[in-house]
Amino acid sequence: MARAQTRDRVLRATVRTLASQGYARTTARAIARTGGFAPGVIYYHFTDLDDLFAATARFTSQARLERYRAETDGVTGAVELVRRLRRLYAEDGAEGHIAAVQELVAAATSSTRLAEQIRAETARWQDFAETVLRGLLANTPLAALVPARELAVAAVAAYLGMEMLSHIDADHTTPAALFDAAERAAALADSLHLR
Amino acid sequence: MARAQTRDRVLRATVRTLASQGYARTTARAIARTGGFAPGVIYYHFTDLDDLFAATARFTSQARLERYRAETDGVTGAVELVRRLRRLYAEDGAEGHIAAVQELVAAATSSTRLAEQIRAETARWQDFAETVLRGLLANTPLAALVPARELAVAAVAAYLGMEMLSHIDADHTTPAALFDAAERAAALADSLHLR
After folding, report:
1. In this structure, is the dihedral angle defined by the CA atoms of residues B150, A162, A146 and A190, taken in order, positive or negative?
2. To 5 degrees, how large is the angle CA A188–CA B179–CA B92?
3. Which among B106, B122, B168 has the least Cβ separation from residue A108?
4. Which of these, A20, A69, B114, B190, is most buried using a 10 Å CB contact count?
């Protein structure tokens, strides 16, 4: 297997282990067990677990951001946007992306390297959310009223917090209810021809 | 010292220990060291650490909710509300309340008892946020358009997520920038006589 492919395999196994077992139990041995390779493979590609975790933050953030960008590109109405975001959120959950990220954010308090990476990834998501919001508000009377940057920052924070809370709310009704409400509000916005 | 006073002292020491050292390092010994009492005092009031953590979630949530209710009571404009929330948020930070809660939410994945308590406290804060929002929107054209419950749920999630991110953003500029933007938006809302 090519070097880059093995590296990706280690990164994907790290995401899955973080999501299913939490940061504290994500040892080299646990990652290797998830991925079905020898623990030594990890140290062939990464200097240590801190290096691996920073790379995992980059890897999963980049992969998901590409999906989010592709899916929200050319969206023409608020309802359509909310529907696409709902699908993307379901993907996040299925792949363990956001659960892994939440574990890494919590763990970042004890690692400068990881904290730096998480800050960089957070900024990328805030930029993305701001772009989507500005696109949606463009040519509407709300464009001048809504502080898009700060709303984008709040949206990224809400996304993380929602994931934290969904861990202890087994039926996951809260995100579903939020998407329902967002879709109703979006339908109203679309019908008012705000855009 | 009366029984209830000692109990409160243990609870306050637990909040401070969670906030400063994180959940994993919050042992009976660490709490006792923070509070300046013998570890045995903890077990006089609580059956085990799980019991203590659930009680701490209740204790700190109730104390802060009382302050939030008192401070937002009778608020007459959006700007005034944002200013009061900014002061309350600063108090949360100084007292370690929200940092402790974030540690407990993260820890709740491994304790049914704690998860149940966190769910109950989260519901209380969502109710509070909804009441404040409905009060602010009452008699404005926005009352029929804004999904107050879902916005309240999102606000509580954003608050938790903001705290997670602020841990790795040493200068704490993000919450300050959000309050600034909220105050500008509130000033606009107030000047438009939306209420």
Report:
1. negative
2. 115
3. B168
4. B114
CA A126 vs CA A40, A157, B8: distances in Å: 36, 9, 40
pLDDT per residue rounded down to tens, chain A (195 residues) = 578 899 999 999 999 999 999 888 999 999 999 999 999 999 999 999 999 999 999 999 999 999 999 999 988 788 999 999 999 988 988 888 888 988 888 788 778 899 899 989 999 999 999 999 898 888 777 777 778 888 898 889 888 888 778 777 645 567 788 888 888 888 877 776 554
0.80 surpassed by pTM: yes
With an 8 Å Cβ cutoff, are A167 and B24 in contact? no
Angle formed by the axes of helices A3-21 and A49-72, to 10°? 90
Under DSSP, the state recorded for A22 is -
Helix axes A97-107, A78-95, angle to 10 degrees: 70
Q: Which amino acid is at A137?
A: L
